[in-house]
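Aim 2 progress update. The chain analyzed this quarter is reproduced below.
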Amino acid sequence: MLAALYLVIGGLHGYALRTELGAPQAIALPAKLEVREGPSIHRKTVFTVQGGSRLSLVERGSGWGRVRLPGGLEGWAPLSGLGELAAPPRRLASEP
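Predicted C-alpha cells:
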C-alpha cells in the first residue's frame, strides 16, 4: 500500500517537473512588472518582479500570460511586458 502511494506521488512529481521544464521561459521587460491574480488590469496585484527576472510562461491568452517563478509563485502578466526566450537547440543522442 505504501509503495503504491510512493508511485503515485512520484508520478505526479515527475509530471509537474516535466510540465515546468517544458514551459517556455520569459523575462520581465519593464523595470517592475506587476503580476496579477487574473488576466485583467482590474484584478489584484499579487506580486511584482524586477525587470530581467526569469519566469516560466505556462499559459497564454487574450494578451496575458500565466507566469510562474522558480519558487512556485504564480499569476498573470501582460504579454507586452514579457520577452520570450528562445529554447536552446536539442541535441540528438547520436550527436557528440
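The chain has a mean pLDDT of 82. The chain has one helix and seven strands. These observations will guide the mutagenesis experiments scheduled for the next reporting period.
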